[in-house]
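Re: beginner question about structure tokens

> Can someone show what the tokenized structure looks like for a real chain? I only ever see the sequence side.

Sure, here's an example I had lying around. Input first:
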Amino acid sequence: MTWFRKARPCTADVRGVRRDLAALFVIAHGGYRLGNMLFVTEPSAPALTVVDWQTVCLGPPGLDVAVFLASSVDIETRRSMERYLIENYVDRLAQAGVRCSGYGLAWGSYRRASLSPLLLSVFTSVALERTERGDAMWLQLLQGAAQLVTDAEAVRVLD
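And the corresponding structure tokens:
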């Protein structure tokens, strides 16, 4: 049996999930981490500017949250704050007038999206030129992402 035939059932399942969740996709930055954020103290400038938009995509609402928490927050802080942050995120969206289906849906989106930073760290890190700074960044993202996938039991959402 060829690799493609073995992969087909998985592809069909992914397409089914994607079709079911299509209405829930948002425009996501895809690399939402501290290294792509410029903080300004000048009163006339925006407090935050997000740069490096080449990975923009349609994705689950939890994608940028998962990338940020996996890459920019240490594991223990993420563990202690993530449920609060997701709840606050949902509340803020509602305050801004965004129709949201609530915390359970947001948590599920975050769990599914937690697989993305792991894949991002593996595939992207091997394609880029190695530097000391880059190696440290990708190692931090890989460690944070692997632990996030474990903590969120993300593999279970693939069943």
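Each token stands for a local structural state, so reading them left to right follows the chain. The two ends are 23 Å apart (CA to CA).
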